[in-house]
Structure formats: C-alpha cells, structure tokens
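Shall we go through a protein fold together, starting from nothing but its sequence? Label the sequence line and the structure token line clearly, so we can match residues to local backbone shapes. Would you write everything just below, so we can both look at the same thing?
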Amino acid sequence: MDTGLIEIFQQEYRELRPRAPIPPLDIRFRRFTSLNTTIRLREGRLHVRLSDLLEPAPESVHRAIAHILLAKLYKKLPIARQAEHIRQTRGRKKILSAQGHYYDLDEVFESLNTRFFYGLLGRPTLTWSAHHARRMLGHYDAAHNTIMVSRVFDRADTPRCAVEYLLYHEMLHLKHPVRVKAGRRCVHSKAFQAEERLFPELDAAKAYLKRL
C-alpha cells in the first residue's frame, strides 16, 4: 500500500468526520478495465480499490478521489439520511427537465464529469429553471440533490462555455459541500476557488455573463 495515498485518505477523512476516529485503511490498485473505484466499510476497516490507471495521477487527483469516495460512503449513514429527509420534507422542489431547446444539461454534466472529475460525481437531478431568471443563474440545492440552471441560457446564441461554466461551478458544490467554521458558513472554500480557476474558458464565460 502507498503510504502517501493512505495519508491523503486520512486527511480527507478528518475533513469529513473530524470527531470520528480514523478506521484502518486497506487501499490497493487493481487492474480494472476502466477508471473504476470502490470503497467498502467491513468490520471496522475501510477497503478501497482503485484502477491502476489512476496510480500515476497527480496528488490533486488522488485527493479528489479520496474526498468523493468518502463523501459517497458516509452520506449514506442513518443520521445523514434522517437529516436529509427532514430538509427535503420542509419544502417542495419544482423539477422541470434537463432537456432544453438547445442544451441538454444531462449531456453537458456527463461531459464535464468525465473531463474534470474522472466520472466520479454522482449525477444529481438537473433542471432548467421555470423562468428566464437573471438574478439566480445557477443553484445547487443539497437538500433535494438538484442543480438548476436559468433558462435564460437555453438559446441558440449562448456559447457552450457559458453553460458549461455554470454547471461546472454547481458541480464543485457537490464536491466541496458547505462547511461551518467558527459559526460561519464557508460556501466557496479555497479548494473550491482553486478548482474553479482550472476551467479552461473561465475568462470567456465570465465575460459573457457580464454582458447579460
């Protein structure tokens, strides 16, 4: 086992579960046919299996994989499920469709997921807004696991980079959930902002948004 990889998983575990003791870790690379990754908790030990295609990837990629796998595993704990259920039942979410007249949000999501997240992000419910909103251009609702994008962008003259950037920004909220530090909510952490700057057409997309 790679001690550096174990340390990365331990650090991400502390971020997600600061009060819980870190269980023993068994992390191994396997000769999968694709970029498969799995994580299981058995008899108090975390078993992680990663495709050997990911072994030469940089530390930033290993850290992202560790965070996503651990978040997927522990969001299914009973307490988390109960809290999520309470938030969901306090309000209704009007869901329309991911398929617009010019852009399919499901297709855009899968393209971004492959390019930037190694296909590891679970796809939430994606929907265009009911109205051509200009104040709220995009929004991730964690309680309903939904990403909404303003319908004002679903038109022929909208550059794809603008739609991609809006969805990419909300996808980062999936990877970097809101945290509370010293009683204050941290929505866009330093890690969030650093990854946002990796979007290759960031300047062009923001320039278009300013012209709306």
Notes: Confidence is low (pLDDT under 50) at residues 77-83. The beta strands are 25-30, 37-42, 45-51, 125-128, 138-141, 146-149, 179-181, 184-186. The first strand starts at residue 25 and ends at 30.
